[in-house]
């Protein structure tokens, strides 16, 4: 009997989790955010990551560049879900994908039920709403998973006071979390 690709992914989930976290730590190091700081508060990375992606020449990106950025952003979305909301990586069967499964993070929503979000879908959605906004991306993941809104609450405070040099809001709002 042959093991399915999804079961193989489940068997290797600890390695997947470690690799995703190490990817985020590598990006943090590249952007001069100490691993110790990141481990204490994953949200400390929002500003440096935003500055980084805002400076990327997205109009010059090739397919490999988009793939790398997609993976990096999804890793960060997942890491925030894990570190700030107690989520964990899971493998879900998905017959709509050629490989037959997808990686998601699963956490407990405000209603007490288990809920999941695909960090790769969250990052991909951001590509369709350029410019990329890290805080919006994280807030969308919180809304999707039904987590207590750490990012959402912070964004509301920023919207009330944050503006750029021209006086315009620096942040495009994410959808309101469901009540």
Structure description:
This protein has about 180 residues and is mainly alpha-helical. It is built from 8 helices and 3 strands. Strand 1 and strand 2 form a beta hairpin. It is globular and about 50 Å long. The termini are far apart. Mean pLDDT is about 85; it is low at about 160-179.
Question: Keywords for this structure?
Answer:
3-stranded antiparallel beta sheet, mainly alpha, 3 strands, 54% helix, globular, 10% strand, disordered C terminus
Low-confidence stretches: 158-179
Percent range for helical residues?
Answer: 40-55%
- Class by SSE composition: mainly alpha
Distance between the termini: 47 Å
Which shape, going by the Cα principal axes?
A: globular
The topology string of helices and strands comes to: HHHHHEEEHHH
What Rg, in angstroms, do the CA atoms define? Answer: 17 Å
The DSSP helix count reads 8
Average predicted confidence as pLDDT? 85
Per DSSP E runs of 2 or more residues, the count of β-strands stands at 3
Q: Biggest sheet: strands side by side, in what order? A: 1-2-3
Largest sheet: 3 strands, antiparallel
Tell me the fraction of residues in β-strands, as a range. Answer: 5-15%
